[in-house]
Write a structure and sequence with these properties.
Radius of gyration: 26 Å
Number of strands: 5
Strand content: 5-15%
Order of helices and strands: HHHHHHHEHHHHHEHEHHHHEEH
Distance between the termini: 27 Å
Oligomer: single chain
Structural class: mainly alpha
Helix content: 40-55%
Shape: elongated
Length: about 325
């Protein structure tokens, strides 16, 4: 945007001082815009478009292009299979698609209440969209916008998408370029699982789904601890026996935190009797290993450690 403002100013034959006067700002503000030190406020877009005699949409587009260049691809490809990563590649929206999503939300779209991937569409909900929006974009383009929006929100939870758009109203939604905090939230509860009740539907096998089997909240808590201790002796005998009394206090505290265990119930043995390592490790199978370290013929000694993928995830979280 900085280079675009300078280019338009020079084409208009204006000095920085003259542009500042027309925009009712200081010359320092203009210098900062052109130097990329500060962003131009939203309430100045229309005035800038008038001064440069260009559509305000052009100003907004240039801002989006610049913001997009600054954003890097944050998606952790190493955690998922190729099919899932290919689907994630498609999970992005332009501003027109985001506007349509907003209208559907405002006018009470039933489809947006879906929390599972199904075979249904929002064709009926599109009839609620004001004619003014359709007239502005054109009927054929409107149908294309609706189709492209559907291809994204069939995978993305509506509440998650709305939260991201509210925080970034001028930025095109792109799962790959979300902040790492938002990506972790998407992985934990922002995507849609396939609706298992569809298994007897004719087209069930043709429906693609995201294969996301990791709990990022758990990983953020326990992986640094497992990385510190290398291997932790968790259980003796059968793999699902209760966890040992003498596991490191830090590991135990991490387990309590990530599983939401209450200390008094834990002390009374409730969790030990009812929740074995398979429950504790649920969502961490990709990033940790659980194995019997004893020699053949000896009593089983079950160890828990971070694996190479888990170490990659720690680096991803820290970067």
């Amino acid at each position: 945007m900085s280079s675009y403002i300078k280019k338009c100013r020079e084409e208009a034959g204006l000095t920085q001082a003259q542009l500042a006067e027309k925009m009712d700002v200081t010359i320092v503000s203009v210098q900062n815009w052109e130097g990329g030190k500060t962003k131009i406020n939203q309430d100045k877009y229309l005035k800038l478009a008038e001064v440069f005699n260009v559509p305000v949409e052009k100003i907004i587009k240039e801002i989006i292009i610049e913001e997009g260049k600054k954003q890097r691809d944050n998606w952790p490809d190493f955690l998922f299979d190729d099919e899932t990563n290919k689907i994630v590649d498609t999970l992005h929206l332009n501003l027109a698609q985001q506007d349509l999503f907003g209208l559907l939300y405002i006018y009470g779209s039933d489809y947006l209440n879906n929390t599972k991937i199904g075979l249904d569409t929002f064709d009926e909900d599109l009839k609620k969209v004001p004619y003014g929006f359709i007239k502005e974009v054109g009927s054929i383009r409107f149908m294309n916008i609706a189709n492209d929006l559907h291809n994204v929100i069939k995978y993305v939870q509506s509440d998650f998408l709305l939260k991201v758009l509210k925080q970034n109203p001028e930025t095109e939604f792109n799962v790959r370029k979300l902040s790492k905090d938002f990506i972790c939230e998407f992985i934990d509860n922002g995507f849609k699982d396939i609706d298992e009740t569809m298994e007897f539907e004719h087209d069930f096998e043709s429906v693609e789904s995201l294969d996301i089997k990791i709990n990022m909240n758990k990983a953020k808590i326990i992986l640094p601890l497992l990385n510190e201790f290398k291997e932790v002796h968790v259980t003796d005998g059968w793999w699902s026996n209760p966890i040992r009394e003498d596991i490191p206090e830090k590991i135990l505290a991490g387990i309590m935190q990530m599983c939401g265990f209450k200390e008094d119930l834990f002390k009374n043995g409730y969790y030990k009797d009812n929740y074995n390592i398979s429950y504790i490790r649920n969502g961490l199978e990709k990033v940790t290993d659980y194995f019997n370290a004893s020699q053949e013929g000896n009593d089983e000694m079950w160890m828990w450690k971070i694996n190479d993928v888990g170490k990659k995830l720690i680096n991803w979280l820290r970067d």
